Amino acid sequence: MNNQPVQLTLLLLFTLLSNTPLGYLRQGVKKRSPLWFLYIHLSIPFIIALRLYFDFNWHIIPLTIGCAVIGQLSGGSLRKRNERG
Questions:
Q1: What CA–CA distance (Å, rounded) separates 78 from 76?
Q2: pLDDT tens string 71-83
Q3: Which tens digit of pLDDT belongs to each residue from 24-64?
Q4: What is the CA radius of gyration of the chain?
Q5: For the range 44-49, what are the long-range contacts, defined as Cβ-Cβ under 8 Å and sequence gap of 24 or more?
Q6: What are phi and psi of 42, to 5 degrees?
Q7: Which of 1, 18, 34, 63 has the greatest number of CB atoms lying within 10 Å of its CB?
Q8: What's the rounded Cα separation, in Å, for the pair 66 and 19?
């Protein structure tokens, strides 16, 4: 049985869900500050480790980047919405 679709779904969900709170936190700090860069890049080693563990090649990287960006933007949007009340 081929588990690749399940593994890909788990990888992309992890990427999206781990970047959403990081985007929320990133929205609350000064742009291009050390914390801002940390919140953008913190999930990358874990995403890479999971990608390698599931034995995906580099072709999956654009999908993970897309999910990371969506998560970051979603988290930032949530923070903006919460701050407006």
A1: 5
A2: 999 999 999 999 9
A3: 999 999 999 999 999 999 999 999 999 999 999 999 999 99
A4: 14
A5: 44/68, 46/14, 46/18, 47/11, 47/14, 47/15, 47/18
A6: -60, -35
A7: 18
A8: 11
